[in-house]
Amino acid sequence: MMRERYINAALLGGLLLVVFWAYTGDEPFTITLATRVAILALAGVGLNIALGQGGLVSLGHAVFFGIGGYAMGILASHAQSYQPLTLGPLVIEGTKSMPLIWLTAMVASGIAALLIGLVSLRTGGVYFIMITLAFGQMFYYFAISWPAYGGEDGLSIYVRNGFPGLNTLDPIQFFGLCFALLLAALAFHAAFKHAPFGLALNAARQSPDRAQAVGLDPTRLRLIAFVISGVITGLAGALFADLNRFVSPTMFSWQLSGELLIFIILGGTGRLCGPVAGAAMFIALEHWLGGLSEYWHIYLGALLLGVVLFAPGGLIGIATRREAAHD
């Protein structure tokens, strides 16, 4: 039986082969599409920790994605204008350094996830979904009404931020950077799943009462997972903003939160590389079918319906089931 890790390796290797083909064929647009897959898959990995491991169906994860994007946009815009950011008595210099921007995005997203989680995790089920959606809409409309950073029109960054030793304007080098971060997040998730905390979180997801009976605190476990999830998604948001050199309130939209859920459902909820498979399928459909019709989401909806009804394990689940059947 071909194990799931070989399928995961094939997925990641396939993405690299596509980029290699595009690089040798001088197709920078294809490299940019692959970079988008890597970044959105990274955001999906973040949500997969909360959803796949913790059972938390969040319809507001775009909050952390948008916070990461705006952290990049605000810091880079102040570096661009040579004007420091003043927050009361605190004066912060702008920066074009990716590592500093990533750190800021991750810390800001983590703090937001902690505060949102403290409120949202007091509920469960559909109420949790609606509260996370409400937070997403609050941030969305706040960004629209924030004229200092573009308001509804968004904020443009004219030059991509820098990383030591790399030319980030080169599509292949920027892809390599995003792909390396995706691999790091996947490695973290793999270790997280089998660590004592991950096993305790999984137990709390399956049976909160039993977990509590043996001394575990399900709410605390879910809150920590929610914060970790927000941190990873915030990093993806900063990368996405750097890819486009643009941030806008749409990064907070509930549609984006829904897309992240779609990535995981298509690839396989709880599967390590489920977000990679789902993001690749989504971007491929958007690219190929989007050129044929502006209503390409109809076909996506049909595919999603088929996966939910006939393949609840997602695309990776289909592959592993076929291998099991052959054995």
Question: Helices and strands in order, then pairings?
Answer:
Blueprint: H1 4-24, H2 28-53, H3 62-81, E1 85-87, E2 90-92, H4 98-120, H5 126-144, E3 155-156, H6 171-194, H7 196-206, H8 208-213, H9 218-244, E4 246-247, H10 254-267, H11 274-290, H12 297-310, H13 314-326
Antiparallel strand pairs: 1-2, 3-4
Keywords: Cell membrane, Membrane, Transmembrane, Transmembrane helix
Transmembrane segments: 7-23, 29-50, 62-80, 100-119, 126-149, 172-192, 223-241, 261-285, 297-319
Main location: membrane
Q: From N to C, what is the helix and strand string?
A: HHHEEHHEHHHHEHHHH
Say how many strands there are: 4
Rg, alpha carbons: 20 Å
Structural class: mainly alpha
Could you estimate the helical fraction of the residues in percent? Answer: over 70%
The largest β sheet comes out as: 2 strands, antiparallel
Question: What average pLDDT do the residues reach?
Answer: 91
Morphology = globular
Q: How many domain regions? A: 1
Our count of helices gives 13
Beta-strand share of residues: under 5%
Strand order of the largest sheet: 1-2
Low-confidence stretches: 323-327
State the separation between the terminal residues, measured CA to CA: 6 Å
